[in-house]
Amino acid sequence: MQSLKLYVIKRVVFVIVMSLSIIFIFQYFMIERAKELHLKNLQHLTLLLERNFSILMDLYSSPALIRYNIQKLREEVPGLTAVYIRYGKHVYFYPQKGGERVGDICNAYKSGVFEDNGTVVVCVPIKSEYASEFVVFESSPSGVFGVAFDEKVQDSYLVPWEAGTVVVSVFLIILGGLVVFTSWSEVMQNFKAMFRFVKKMEQIVERISRNSNPEKVKIQKEKLLKYARGITIKEFKQIVSLIAYLVEKLHEFAKKASNLAMKDPLTGLFNRNYLRVFVEGKLLALWHRHRFPFSVAMIDLDNFKRINDTYGHGKGDEVLKGLAELLQSTLRGSDIAVRFGGEEILVVMPYTDKESAKKALGRVRKLFKELDFEISQPVTFSAGIASFPDDVESVIPLERLIKIADERLYRAKKMGKDRIVID
What is the pTM of this model? Predict the structure, then answer.
């Protein structure tokens, strides 16, 4: 469970880091794009200015007028720091120092946008398209038009835009953080519920593996469902439902496996494994410590081999199951009937002396003789009974009582069968 939590934490951190990285990378490229657009705007502005001055110089050849318009242009266009014009043989620039620097760049590169010592220099070629009515040039003069813009103007556009994108990014990060925090809180609550669920499931599995009391297992399962109801995330619910389903199947499998390990498949009676694990392993010490009266009866069907040989093993199985069902329905719930081997059945009768045990088995023997197995003669059984403390000083080990009961069963057979011997 902890490894799963660590896995989710790593993935959440990875998603947050990736999201922040994408936001900042996106912002960087957007700023670069904005700068690029700003430079293109400056280039377009320079082209417009070049057109105006080109027309002006085609129509008027007065240097004083052109210088005046250059000075006016510097005053009217925000951020413009210097202008340089070379038109045919004429050269104009303003101011002197900045204009000469623009001229050096534009004469060297002819056309383009360049950054130079805190300014952006834009150079475009001049081609004459207009001629004066009074002056006709033999050939169209050419030249270069250059303008220098202060980079602070660019910053005045970009800084508010960057600030806006930062504010939007921070808002998105905070909003995403709130969503992640809310989701994370829900995930952690579900993790806690799942952790309790798994812990309770482990207790149930442990109880199942120890063949615990079914009622206790049922209580644990109810608590398990209570924890499952605290899970709200759909995927977690599916996992929990799958686990609960598997635990239920495990419980069913454990019950079947327990029955197969502890019960005889033909008669439904307990087998010798149950006798060893439950009776000898858990009950004998209690009965011995409190010296409760305790009897065992060894029962054997009379003439069982002849029934099998005459009517077949199917009929023999039917007779054996009939006796097992009668024992289960007639004896007390505390009495334990065990298929000991073949047609032999051992009955463990706690809190019962020999006489009481004989009376109880006498009722079973009478009822059994009345059953109709479609055999020409009644089917009977013989039994030998041994008791504690009458026949042994200690019930441990149980084999001593069983041996005495078996000897008395043998005596009952010798005495003519269809009887119960207690001495």
Answer: 0.44
Look up the domain containing 234 and give its range. 185-260
Query: Strand order in 294-301's β-sheet?
Result: 336-341, 344-350, 294-301, 381-388, 420-421
Residue 419 CA, distance from chain mean position: 66
- Domain presence at residue 163: no
**Mean pLDDT (10-residue bins), the chain, 423 residues:** 61 75 78 80 84 76 81 81 86 86 87 86 76 44 82 71 73 73 69 65 60 59 64 64 66 59 84 79 72 89 89 90 92 89 89 91 92 85 91 82 92 92 90
Across 245-270, b (16+ Cβ under 10 Å) vs e yields: eebeebbeebeeeeeeebbbeebebb
Alpha carbon 4 to chain centroid distance?
8
Q: Verify that 236 and 285 share a domain, yes or no.
A: no
Q: Which residues lie across from 299 on neighbouring strands?
A: 345, 383
CATH number of the domain enclosing 44: 3.30.450
> Looking at the domain assignment, is residue 192 inside a domain?
yes
Q: Are residues 230 and 377 in the same domain?
A: no
Report the distance separating Cα 226 and Cα 3, nearest Å. 24
